[in-house]
Amino acid sequence: MMYAATDPLQPWKARAAIRWWRDSDAETDFAIVWCQIGWQLFSRSVWVNPAEVVERRIRNNRASSDQWDAATEFVITGEGRRWWC
Asked: Which among 24-28, 36-40, 54-58 has the top mean pLDDT?
């Protein structure tokens, strides 16, 4: 999944965006958040029913078990305003 917040005066430009995905093998959700000046990666573990551990399958309707934690430091990639990032 991906969501973007566009600039109302320049709708073709994204001010910020988030992309979320699930890695079934690692039993982890990941999200990368971009803004005008950089990006940061976040992760959280996914709850797996013990009865399904043998199958090593995680369906999309499985609940996450933890809060989002920063997986990387914030990476500055450009210049810009910090007030909305």
From this structure: 36-40
Hey, where are the domains in the chain?
15-47+63-77
- CA–CA separation, 16 vs 60, rounded Å? 25
Across 16-35, b (16+ Cβ under 10 Å) vs e yields bebeeebeeeebbbbbbbbb
Between 44 and 82, the more confident residue is 44
Q: What sign has the CA pseudo-torsion 75, 16, 67, 29? A: negative
DSSP annotation of 18 reads E
Nearest of 85, 64, 70 to residue 32 by alpha carbon:
70
